[in-house]
Every structure is written in C-alpha cells, then in structure tokens.
Design goal:
homopentamer, 326 residues, alpha+beta, two-stranded antiparallel ribbon, rod-shaped
Amino acid sequence: MIQVRAFRDGTPVADDLTLGDAERLIDEERCFVWIDVTDPQGDEVDALGAIFALHPLTIEDAHHRHQRPKVELFEGYAFVVVHPLAMRDAPDGGELVDQELHAFVGPRYIATIRYGAEPFSLKGVEHRWLGQPEMLAAEGGGFATYVLVDEVVDDYLSIVEAFEDRADDLEDGVFEEPVTEDEGSDLQERIFRLKREVVRLRRFAAPLRQSLDMIQEEPKIAGSKLQPYYRDVSEHVLRVTELADNIRDLLTSLLEVRVSQVANRMKKLSAWAGIILVPTLIAGVYGMNFANMPELGWSVGYPAALGTMLLSSGILYVVFKRKGWL
Amino acid sequence: MIQVRAFRDGTPVADDLTLGDAERLIDEERCFVWIDVTDPQGDEVDALGAIFALHPLTIEDAHHRHQRPKVELFEGYAFVVVHPLAMRDAPDGGELVDQELHAFVGPRYIATIRYGAEPFSLKGVEHRWLGQPEMLAAEGGGFATYVLVDEVVDDYLSIVEAFEDRADDLEDGVFEEPVTEDEGSDLQERIFRLKREVVRLRRFAAPLRQSLDMIQEEPKIAGSKLQPYYRDVSEHVLRVTELADNIRDLLTSLLEVRVSQVANRMKKLSAWAGIILVPTLIAGVYGMNFANMPELGWSVGYPAALGTMLLSSGILYVVFKRKGWL
Amino acid sequence: MIQVRAFRDGTPVADDLTLGDAERLIDEERCFVWIDVTDPQGDEVDALGAIFALHPLTIEDAHHRHQRPKVELFEGYAFVVVHPLAMRDAPDGGELVDQELHAFVGPRYIATIRYGAEPFSLKGVEHRWLGQPEMLAAEGGGFATYVLVDEVVDDYLSIVEAFEDRADDLEDGVFEEPVTEDEGSDLQERIFRLKREVVRLRRFAAPLRQSLDMIQEEPKIAGSKLQPYYRDVSEHVLRVTELADNIRDLLTSLLEVRVSQVANRMKKLSAWAGIILVPTLIAGVYGMNFANMPELGWSVGYPAALGTMLLSSGILYVVFKRKGWL
Amino acid sequence: MIQVRAFRDGTPVADDLTLGDAERLIDEERCFVWIDVTDPQGDEVDALGAIFALHPLTIEDAHHRHQRPKVELFEGYAFVVVHPLAMRDAPDGGELVDQELHAFVGPRYIATIRYGAEPFSLKGVEHRWLGQPEMLAAEGGGFATYVLVDEVVDDYLSIVEAFEDRADDLEDGVFEEPVTEDEGSDLQERIFRLKREVVRLRRFAAPLRQSLDMIQEEPKIAGSKLQPYYRDVSEHVLRVTELADNIRDLLTSLLEVRVSQVANRMKKLSAWAGIILVPTLIAGVYGMNFANMPELGWSVGYPAALGTMLLSSGILYVVFKRKGWL
Amino acid sequence: MIQVRAFRDGTPVADDLTLGDAERLIDEERCFVWIDVTDPQGDEVDALGAIFALHPLTIEDAHHRHQRPKVELFEGYAFVVVHPLAMRDAPDGGELVDQELHAFVGPRYIATIRYGAEPFSLKGVEHRWLGQPEMLAAEGGGFATYVLVDEVVDDYLSIVEAFEDRADDLEDGVFEEPVTEDEGSDLQERIFRLKREVVRLRRFAAPLRQSLDMIQEEPKIAGSKLQPYYRDVSEHVLRVTELADNIRDLLTSLLEVRVSQVANRMKKLSAWAGIILVPTLIAGVYGMNFANMPELGWSVGYPAALGTMLLSSGILYVVFKRKGWL
C-alpha cells in the first residue's frame, strides 16, 4: 500500500495525493515529499524506482528483506536500511520482532518501505517532523532521516535497558539459589535466550554507526547544521552496543557460575553419600553369619554398634565440614 | 577440457571456436572472449598462459588447487581465485563441497579454470551475461567477474541461511531435552560438525572483501560504472561473514548449555542415590545378627522399620526439592 | 539548586551571586564564572541553556542522566559528561555509586550539573582551583575541567587499587581452601560481584581517554600550556583500564581454578567411596544365608573376614594414593 | 664451517674459493657471491662482519640463536632471520625441529648462517638459483632471498597440511569413541601436543609477512620485477597462518567435545548405579531379622521379591531411557 | 641518597661531585652528567627538578611510585619510567620483584631515580657506558637511555625464558600423571601463579615498544645513529611479549587438560563402583531371610553365588574396557 504526503515549508499539504502528485511536487522548490509503502508489492517498488530514478541495484535490494543495516550513497540519493525492533511479549520474557525498513532519501524527499506483519509505526517520526517545520523545510531529507533513525535508536535504548533489568533478575535468580530444579533448568534456558536476543540487538545496532558516518559524508543530504544531531544519534548507538556487550559478558559469567554451583552441589551430595556409606559398612559387618562373632552375644553389642555408626558418621561430618567438602 | 566462447557487442558469436580463434578475437575491438577450462591438464594451463601473456607465477598458481581466495593484479590482467561451494547431502545434514575456481580477467576477456569432480556450474553466470549484453559489451572483464563472484556469493548466502536453520533446529533439540542418550550424543556431534562447516564457509567468504577492493583499484578492469555493483557484492560478503560469526557463537553457547545440562542431570541422579542410600542403611541395621536387638521381637517392628525407611526418603525428597537439588 | 561563584584573576569574588550576576560577569574580561547545579530541575537546566547559548541537543542531554562519558564540542563550548564513582560499604565488600556529572565548559566559565542522592563533592576540585589562581586566570575553563577530571580519575585509581586488594584476598581465599562450604560458595559470589564492579568501573573510565583527546582539539578551551596536564590524566585513565583488565582476567582464572578444585574434591570423595564399597561387598558375601558356607564355621572366620576387609581397603588406599586419585 | 661460492652471470664459477676471493669478487660487476656458514664459530661471524661491513648490532645478533623471524634494513644490506622447520618423527606423531637461519643480503651477495645439529639444507635453494641464472644475474640478493624464503614457506605449507591430516585423524578418534581408556587419555594428550606444535609453527610463520613487506621497501635489494614473487610468498605465509588458526580452533573445540563426552559417560554410569541401588535396597529389606515378617514365610515370597527387584530396575531403565539419562 | 658522576668525552671525571658541580658541568660542552638517586626523599626530587628545570607534573610523578612504563617528552628533556624486574626465589618457584626506575634524560645528562628495598643495580649499565666512551660522548642521553633500557629488557628475556622452562616442567608434570593428590593440587596452583607472573611481566614489557618509538621522535635526544639500536631493543621487547603470550596460552590449555584429566579419573572411579555394586546386589539377594529359598540349601549354592559375582564383575569389566569407560 502506498501513501503519499507532502510538506510545503514544513507544513503538510492536503492529504489526498497520488504518485503523480508526488512526482510533480518533488520538483517544486519549497516542498518535501514523503512516500510510504507498507507490505510492498513488486510493482510498487518499481514505481518508486522510476519516480526517483533509482539505480537498478537499489531497486533490486528493495525487493528483498533481510538486508544488513546500511547506508549506500548513489548519485543524488542515499539508500538506507534500518531494523527497528519491537518487543513482543513471550512466556519466557519477551522476544524481539524485526521490523525492517528501507528508505530512499534525497535532498527534498524520503521514501520509506516498511516490511513485516506489524511494520514499524511512523506516527512518532511524523509527529517530530511536524514539530520542527523549520528544520524539515531547511534540511529536508537529512533531517527526516535523522528523526527516523533517532526514533529507531531510542527504541533500541529502551530495549537494551529492559534487557539489563532482565539480566539483573537472572543474576538474583542465580544467587538466591533456585527453589526447584525446574526453575534452575529454566534459568539456564532464560540466560541463553536473553543472550541470544542481546546479540541480535547488537547485530542490528552496531552497523548503524558506520551508516551515520556515511550519511554525513554527503553534504547534499546532511548539511553541516545537522552534524551535532547525527553525532548525537551515533553516541546513542554506541551506548546501545556497549550496554549490549556488558549484558552479554554478564550472562556468560552467570552461566559459568551456574555450572560451578551445580558442581558444588554434586560435591555436597557425594560427601553425604560418603557419610552414609560408612555406617552401612558397619551394619554389613554385623550382618555376617559367622558362627564365632563374640560381639553378637554381648548384651551391649547392638547399642554399641549403633553408637559406632553414629560416631563414625559424626566424625566424617565434622571432617568434611572442616575441609569445606560439605 | 577447453571451451571457447566469444561475444560481439555482448551477443554470442558462432559456438565452434578454437584457441586460435580466441587469440584472434581478443584483438578485435568489440569482442569479449571467454575461455573455460574444466579439469585442467598441465598443457592447457600453459596454453592459456601463452595466449594471455600471463606472468610465470600466475601460471604456476593455476597448476595447483588449494589457493586462498584472492585477487592479484598483474600488468594488464587480474588473477582471481574464488571457492564456490555446493551443499552435498550427508546423513548428518549436509557437507560443503569446495569447487575451487581460478580466473584470469583482462579488459576484454575472462578465462575460467574449474576444478573438482563436480566443478561449479557457470550456466547461471552465462545466463546473466547474456541478459545484460550492453554491460558485457561496455565493461567486459570487470562485469563478467562481478557476475561470477555475485553468483558465488549468492550461493554462500543460501548456504549460510540453511546453516542458520540447522542451528535453530539444534537449539530446539537441546532445549526439548533429547529423548534418548543416542540422540543427545548425536546432538553434540552435530553441533560440532555444523560449527566446523560454518568456520569453513567463513574462511572462503571473508577474504573476498579484500579481493573485491583490489579489483576496484584497477580502473582498466573495473570501471567506475561497476563500483555500485562491486559494493553490493561486498555488502553480501559482509552479511555472510556476520551471519557465520553469529551462528558460530550460538553453537558455542549451545555446547556449553549442553555440558551444563549433563551436569544438572548427574546432580539429580546423585540426589536420587542419596534418597535410596538412607533406607538401605536402615535395612542394614536390622539385618545385623546381634542376639539382643529388642526391636526385632516387636510385633510392629517390621512395619515400623518400613515406615521409617519411607519417612526418611520422603524427608530427603522434600529437602532436596526445596534446595533445588532434585 | 543553583549556586553561582565567580573568580577575578583567579581569586573568588563575593559569594552571593545570582544567575543575573553570572551573565554579566561572563562578559567581564578577567573573570571566570562557575555555576553549580545539584539535583537539577527542568527550568534550571533551561536557564543555563539560555545564559550560555547552548545547543538544543546539549540542553536535552542535560535533562537526562545515563549519558556515556563523553566530550562534545559545540560552537564556543564543550559539553562534558563524566561519572565520578564513590565506594559505598556493603556487606559483601563495597559497591560503586555512580555520581554522574555534566559540565558545559567555555573559555571563561564552567557550569556543572550533579546528579544523584549523594552527588560528587566538588570541595576538592574548588580547593585546587584556588590553589593555582594564576592557572585559573590564564587557562579558565580548560584548567577547571582538567582539575575536575583529574579528581575523578584519582578516585578511579584509588578504587581500582582497592579492587586489586580485594582480588588478592579472594585469591588467598581460593588457595587457602575455604573452611566451610558456605564460605566456598560465598567466594564464588564475591568473585562474580567484584568482576562485575571492575567491568563497571572500566566502562566509565575507558571512554575518558577519547574525551580528553577531544578537549585538546579545541584550542580555545585547552591551550597548549595545558597539554602536559591532559596527557597526564590520560595516562592515569590508561592505568585504571589496564589494572581493571588485569583484575578481570585474574578473577576469571580464579573462577576456573575454583571449578577445578571442586572437581578435584569430588574425585577424592569418589575414591573414598570406592574404598568403602569393597569391604561392604565382603560383608555382604558373609551375610549370605547359604547352608553350606564352610568359612562361617571356622573359628578364625570372623577375624579373617575383618582382616580381608581391612587389607582390601588398605590396598585400594595405597593404589589410589599412588595414582594420585586420593 | 665456511663455504664460498660465486656466480658470474648466474653461472657458478670454479668451486674452491676462499673468503679472500669472495671479497674480491663482490666488487666485480657481473658476479654474485654466496658465503654459507654452518655451525658458526665466533670468529667466522666476525670475519663476515668485516667483509660486508656489517653494523655491530647485526654481528652481535648473528652470534646468538633464538632471534625472532625478521628483516632489518641497514645501510646497503638487509639482515634476515627465518626459522626453517623440519618434521622429526616421534612416537606421538612428529615434532618440529627449528633450523634457525640468518642471512645478510646485499645487492650482489648473500651470506647464510645455519644453526643446529641438522641445519636447513640449501640444496633445493641452490638448485633453483641455478635454474634461473638470468634472474640471479639481474636481481642478485633480492632473488636469492626470495628463493630461500619461498623454500622455507613451502615446507611450512607441507607441515601445516600434515597437521591438518593429523587433526582430522584426532577428530575421527574422538567421534568413533575410543576403545580403551588408554587411547582416550592418549587422544587428549595428542590433541594438546598437536595444538602446541601448530601454535609454534604459526609463531615462526606469521612475522614473515611483515618481513617480506620490509624487503620490498628497499629497492636496492628487491627490484620492482621481484614484487609479484614476494607477493606470492606473502600469500603463502597467509595461507599457512590461516590454516594454523583453523586447526587450533578445531582442536580447542575437540578438547571441549572430549570433556563433554566424559561427562556424558559419567552420567550414564550414575544412572546405571541408580538402577542397581534400588534392588539392593529391596534385598536389604528382606535381609532384616525381624521376628514378624510375614512375607518371609510365604512360599512365593522369594520369587516375588526377585520379581519386584527386576520390575523396579526395569521401570527405572525405561524412565531413564525416556529422559535421555541413559 | 644522591650520587653525582660526570663523563668528559665519555671518560669519568673525578668521583666526588656535588649537585652544585653537576649544575655547572651540564653547561660544559664535552661533558655528560649522571645523577643517581636511590630511595628518594621529597626534597631530593625537588632539587633535581630545580637543576634540570623540570615541569611540575614530572616532579609530581617522580614523587610517586606505581607509574606505568612510559616516555613523556617535555621541552628539552624526556621523562622515562621503566620497571626492571628481578626474580626472587620463592618456595613455589620464584616471584618477580618490581624495581621501578624513573629517569629524566636530556641531551647531555641523565638523572635516575631508583625505588624499592633492592633497587635495580646500574653496575652493568655503567660498565657498558664506559665501554663505549665515543658513543657516550657523541650521543649523550640518547645512548645512556638505550643502554639502560637494553639492560632492563635483557633481564626480561632471561626471565621469560626461565618462565618457559617452568611451563615445560608443569606440562611434563601434567602428562606424567602426578603421584599424589597433593602434587596434583599443587600443579594447579603453580600453573595459576606462573600464569599470573607471566601476565605481570607482559604488562611491564609491552608498553616499552611505544615508549621506544616516542624517544626516537625526539631527534635532540636520540640521533639517527641510534636508530638501529633502539630498533633492536624494540625487537627484543616484541620477543618478550610474544613469548609471554605463548606461555600464557600454553598454561591456559594445561589447566583445561588438568580439569579433563580429573573428570576422566572420576569416570574411571564411577565405572569401578559400578563393577562392585553388582556382586553387592547378588550378596544382598542371598542374604534375604525367606523361608523358601531353594538355592540356599544346594551344596554348590555358595560357590555358584561367588562364581556369579565374579562372572558379573568380569563381564562388566570387559564391557567397560571395550566402551572406553575404564
């Protein structure tokens, strides 16, 4: 589905526009045109290619999802791929949904292609465009792209902070010693899955830094006035990747601690087994059927045997405690 | 076996050409010559060397397989080594077959040498050459090489995505807790083998980026019009290596999870052993042959002993559950 | 809360200044103005923005905590974010408190914004400003910032050295073999937590190097006379990060040693279990109720059986000791 | 021992030359002089220093083995250190022998110093010099050095490929499940030792790349005609290091798989122990000596007890199989 | 304690010099002055600062130990920090003693400050200065510094080679299978401690490379004639760090092998336990008190039971051997 919007001096013009209008308005001096395509059909992408005179490679790329986050500069326009992410609730604590978004950005236009069943909402982006009409009018595509990427990265920051909280929960879970085995094994799976999502987030975020550098290299699109803005987003991307790296390392350490906790408990169990085996041996001795076992006839034989069992276990208990085996 | 083809203005000329024709046509202005050698014999490679005036080192390299993926620029031509990969079905999920391919590329010719029992098929490559005759006519060897490498890298992408699916399957396998030991031990081997294939793919793919940069440094071979095309392949190579890195890390984590799962189960088994050892000790006690064991004469002695056994096991069970040891 | 101070030729002027005074004094030639905001309110930050003509992005950043340590150069001023750290006593050995601090630095002014319940104390910083009035008068904001960052980094150094001591304690704890299991499991948690704090410290310290490089790029703020000073702080930052890396590696190794110690003890316990199982089997044999067991009738049967038990255990003990299993 | 050879126009001159002849021939225009020292004595090295006017540092270096692989450029000559490697058969599969070799290379001479009990044989190198007299005559020391390094690196390639085969064998060994414990523990040691040799090979090979770059920086020694040759060796060095890295990673993974295989078997053993412990408990129960145990009097008591034992074991077996514990 | 020496044309002048003499001689043209301070007092450092017109930061640094190895260039002099290391004998194989040394180096003077209870001996350094009077006269501070750093790095080389030997010993220890448990656990600790010392050595050595590069950037201190000398030390530093890296990796692998050896032995012990548990069960069966157990009455019952026990154990033994569990 294609929607066409236009802004004259940063203010939206009447809403019912066609692709034909768009083509006309792009040439008008004070206008900024926004074409938004959701769930793109092949011919729609081709139509965009024709209107904006896109390079065949760009058109081919736009036909397919699963591009890396990137910015490619072509004669007169930039091709931008970002991966907005949404957090979908899941029983084990939320899963990332990739809402891939492609954009062709020229000095006076932006064309966005949004993929997926629940594409990235551009409401917030549009709201900020309308909130700074003078910037939209003066900087056009460069400003529009900045706002778009900034919104995406702000979502990344929220997500990475939510991940940080979940990692803290998992850490508490590990050190509070889980109540049941099921929880313990669940912890392990949750650590693994969170780590995977963190790595996934990082993979989408990290290439953006280079992308933002590339946009700034094209003065026709990102004028010098936009430089602090792009630097600011770039800084946020860096924060996302650093936090993601931290969380990943923390989770790796947690998994190691978990393994060593399990080993610790096995050691404890083995020590207890040792404590039980000794009186079992004593019982075995006095269960032997030799004709000539004087102790068996003693009146204090039985209590003495029980006492010996208790004593041996007690000694073992103390020794193991002292050695830190129990 | 040598096959010679030629294209005049991008359109194929009559098919029955000899090496002699090739030598003549290379000098013709609007012609592009393609010599394809499969299962090369020593003298065939030498013949190519003579026709294209290749450096002795290039000829020596072409005599041997097992070159690194690379591009080397010589006076007037480039020597290209790529490793197309095919996926051969195997009982444990597919194995990569290396179809090493060497090419000498000049402005107006390409000579391909294909190795192995099942060499890389150039049908798709030729199809795309024929589909863009104007590019083949204008850009010659640079375009032909781009198409060749692009096809190889497209195969890499398919393979790496297939690997991603297999890794997801393995992940499910690990967390669904395998039904039998055989499957469990099989998982481990499959994780290891997939990891090895991923590393192998990465090894063939990663050096291509530098290779593509080198080709673009030689304006006689890759004109500026080809730049976006080469950048595009380079981007795909990057995607392959990034995905490969991700899969490898995922598999490493999976193997760790697997080890900790095994440890977990041993802990559980140890706890169960502890639960059984205690009543065994009690039974041992009442199996002793002391003359004077009053409990043995009690009418409720036996049921009381059984009850004590059950009770002790029950208490241990509850304690272990609470401590998360079971 | 806003406090305004001013220094004429490096010497403090009368203390009761308002924001209005500040605005006037900034334009006065021999003056250096310091505005300090703690627990900033929205309108206070905006007021600073108006006085110093700050870029909207700077103002927006200053409204929010949780910025990365950074220096951003704008027209005529630098925006500095550092994270002073305080060590708060905690039962498991001290926790870092982040006292984020933002500063706007111009040639003749510095504005500091301090966050948190216990913001970073600037007493020491001010003391050093007053101690070198000629530097404050000559170098203004560049010198003020140097002193500020130097104080922060000095705290980092103290902290990292305290961490080093704690790591040494933990190392001793691991090799002295902990007396009780609780201590052992505690060691593990303490190693993990110290490692996390070290990583956190590193995360705050490392980006400062780049920040210090950036300030020196702006000659209006950091004159050439300040260069050795900035280089000196940069060197200290490097020392902090190197020590942090060392401690982290040491702790990782310690955790591994810990795991292998636990495995060692389990092996020992298993060997002891083996030593007990053999006489238990012998006892079991002579507890069998066969009618025809000649040994049972022997007068030396019982002592012989006991002797065999002792002997078998003794042999196992010696064998295991020799093999290093015990 | 010193041997002197000389080549006029690439062809060897009469063999019986002294150091004095060498000194004279170096100044002759069409001559190339080769001095070869094996098992060098102090005075021999000093003599070389005098003849070729070597820097005191070079002479000092040449007095000692255990130099890093390197090339150092001095006024008029290059000092080259390489470490040819030979594979010595050993019971556990071959060990590398370091045959350190130093060379001083000037435009018209090369002096080689070979160390060790079995120094690197220069037969192959000399053979190739004689095979390309025109190159030796035209390029002198640069060509001689190329051939020397190329021979060394070719050996590296053979070795690294032999290592690859051994790694494949070890992999098969791990997954075929070793027949005896001795083999299993041997595998571990062999993996470790192979890994160490691979790392050693890599350490000798990797610095060569930088060395080769350095030689090419000195046009007096390596003319532009030699550039493709040096690039070719450099490519081979890269292949050696890449293969070495791969093998090392593979071996590391193998060691991990091995650890997890051992854990798997212990789990299996623990499960079997559990299966035996339950009937042991039942036997213990009916071994108790209570006066009033009605089951003991039943005629079907004994077979029923045996049946219960079998049944309980059987149930455990099935449960463990289903849970993948066995 | 301060000692003043001076060299005229590289030859020592009369020994009894005061700081006042030093100040005078520095201005004399053919003189080189060396001031050596051990166990520095505050005022001594300040005095040096005054004589050589040192920057306040240098003076402050020199007041404190625990600086990073570094070279800082100031107007007219360089501030050098190195950490000579001595090996102190210790029960577990030697410990490194840090003998921090600071030096101020000008074209015609060097001032050394030595810290610690056993400061670094400069006998060897002075000996080499006297041995090359022409170099000391011509190159002054640059040469003096080269000799100083070269002596320090030579010690590093000796130490790293000693560490290599110890690592080889530890490797033998691991594979020879330690005789007693104490040795085994000791091995682990020794591996850990050696690794820590290696990392420490590396930390002191690695920054020297950058330091040496910095000195060479200051032509007033290190003239072009000294370049090969500095390059030579730099090469040695590289060798130290590479060897240190190798040893560290080797030790890490050793620790892993150690863990897997322990696991292997536990597996073996578990298998032996399994072999004992089966006859124990059989004994338990015939220890039951059922009235109706026909086997008990058989005359061959007892030998048959013993035979069954032996047989079952024998079968298990063979099976476990075949499966590689024993």
